[in-house]
Amino acid sequence: MYLCLYGMNDVALFDQLRKRNFSASKVFFERYYGRMLAVCRRYCAEDAEALSTLFDLYDPTLEYLLQHTVESKENLWPHLEMALIKKLILHTKLKGASFHVSNTVHPKSQNEFNFDLFAPSERVDFSLTNRESLLKSIQQLTPPHRLVYNLCCIDGFSNMEVAELMEYSLDTVRVNLEKAKFALFKNLEYILTHQ
Predict the structure, then answer these.
(1) Which of 52, 79, 95 lies at the terminal end of a domain, its last residue?
(2) Number of domains, the chain
(3) d(CA 182, CA 195)
(4) Looking at the structure, do residues 189 and 109 belong to the same domain, yes or no?
(5) Domain holding 38: CATH number?
(6) pLDDT 10s per residue in the chain (195 long)?
(7) CA 174, 100, 61 angle in degrees (round to 5)?
(8) Whole domain around residue 61: which residue ranges?
(9) 86 and 108 co-located in one domain
(10) What is each CA distance from 51 to 124, 138, 180, in whole angstroms?
(11) How far is 96 from 163, CA to CA, in rounded Å?
């Protein structure tokens, strides 16, 4: 049965998922594992947490996808990604913000103790930054800042859409986004100078 399932397109595989075929769920997971893990890595503080989160959220995400996708789709990835992001938002909100700004803003040197969030900072040229440094910088953001940054800057949601998804005020989203951008630049600056 696996050979038959592995060769299926998304429409046929989705039909098997609707029939609650466990083997189809396994094939679906294997097909989208890399993409789902990449999304989780952006929303989690470290790779081990991302892997754990993916395993925790896969079944609820799949259930959400099955409940909210009316027809079988040719390309399931955008729907799966949106379902996973919604589950990650809920997961992050429930986990709470247990980190402090001092954990995410680093001084330029050991002798410098400037942790001022609004101190002027040089902008980072992203074309000179490798993906791992950028990912590590995003992972070091506090959970609410990481969430807002990913939704607005990477996933392309508007501030209003993020406010509705997270049940925050528009001003809270804007402030968190500005703080996230600033902390991201500080994190990148620290990582790039200490490589």
Answers:
(1) 95
(2) 2
(3) 20
(4) yes
(5) 1.10.1740
(6) 454 777 788 888 888 888 888 888 999 999 999 999 999 999 998 999 999 999 999 999 999 988 886 565 677 888 889 899 999 988 888 776 444 333 444 444 444 444 443 344 444 555 667 888 888 999 999 988 999 999 998 888 999 999 998 888 999 999 999 999 999 989 988 888 887
(7) 65
(8) 2-95
(9) no
(10) 29, 16, 23
(11) 17
Q: Which helix (H) or strand (E) holds 61?
A: helix 47-68
Name the phi and psi angles at 107, rounded to 5: -70, 160
Nearest by Cα to 137 from 124, 127, 155, 120: 124
Does residue 132 sit in the same domain as residue 177?
A: yes
* Same domain, yes or no: 9 and 90: yes
Separation CA 66–CA 180 (nearest Å): 33
Does residue 113 sit in the same domain as residue 83? no
Compute the distance between CA of residue 138 and CA of residue 183 in angstroms, rounded to an integer: 9
Tally of residues, the chain: 195
Which residue matches tokens 């000179």? 128
